[in-house]
Specification:
Length: about 80
């Protein structure tokens, strides 16, 4: 079974310098991804960057992934 920690590692490896928080039950996951590279990009482009970091794992290992993406400057810990 895929763990939140494993998904966190995959995203952080594919998006160097990113910070990732993951929660989930083994099939459905929620992620908050902070990355400087998201600056100036649309939300769709940011999500595509995360999906690119995960590669074929989205098709094979992860059933559902809900994403919140932003730059570190946009992060408000109160909004979790």
């Amino acid at each position: 079974m895929i763990t939140p920690e494993r998904i966190k590692q995959w995203i952080e490896s594919g998006l160097p310098g990113s910070r990732v928080e993951i929660a989930g039950d083994g099939r459905h996951f929620q992620a908050i991804v902070l990355c400087e590279e998201f600056a100036g990009r649309t939300r769709i482009q940011q999500h595509q960057m995360v999906y690119d970091a995960l590669g074929d794992k989205m098709e094979a290992d992860i059933h559902a992934l809900s994403l919140r993406t932003m730059t570190p400057d946009q992060w408000d810990p109160q909004s979790k």
